[in-house]
């Protein structure tokens, strides 16, 4: 995760940008802007196809000869080469955005002509803002999705909503299903390491976006969700069958830190790893608490 305070690539002065994820097809950047009405706007150019969720605050934008206002829950959109200038004439700064920036190849595969990607702004409509909230939760590591998965799903939904039609229903071929089965075996065998959507797609001989769609259709979960499930299952087996500490198990299962493991395990099992182990050892109080929580859920 890279953090810098500079004139950013979507890219306003007086902002802090944090690169959360990056590969050749997709870059994810978190922006926090502190510009105010006293700061002069200046022209900038989109380097990639960009879809940025405004999670907090508001700002203005001059682009394509028009003035746009962007609000929390909306999206700032751009295509490569599009010129824009962000303004804060009627805003107090402090706006924050989660920006997904796509390569030309990935944007082409996801779909939408240049007119769709040159809209500049999209208002806070529920069809998209709900997925924006999901993307933000993924960035905060409170979901089992990856940022690459969330970004592609969000972009596909954006294109569909802007075009006003539904994406064609996917029908995996026999070869697709074989590829997905091999991919699950590869993810299972490598669950202790970090999962890259690009690497998993390459193993399957597919593009990342098509692989994500095919895998989700066949398995009923995204590659990252399947990977997290593998790690948690192995962790549960170690909690039940070994005397290793929770920290040792977290590291053995591939989790980089204890807090992430604790959070992920509790989200999946409903109890902490320690409580799960005590429950297996006959702690009736823990079992009753878990049963009560399950009933309420």
TrEMBL record:
Gene3D superfamilies hit by this protein: Homeodomain-like
HTH araC/xylS-type domain residues: 181-279
Keywords: DNA-binding, Transcription, Transcription regulation
Pfam families: HTH_18 (PF12833)
SUPFAM superfamilies the UniProt entry points to: Homeodomain-like
GO molecular function: DNA-binding transcription factor activity; sequence-specific DNA binding
Name under which the protein is recorded: Transcriptional regulatory protein
Organism: Hyphomonas polymorpha PS728
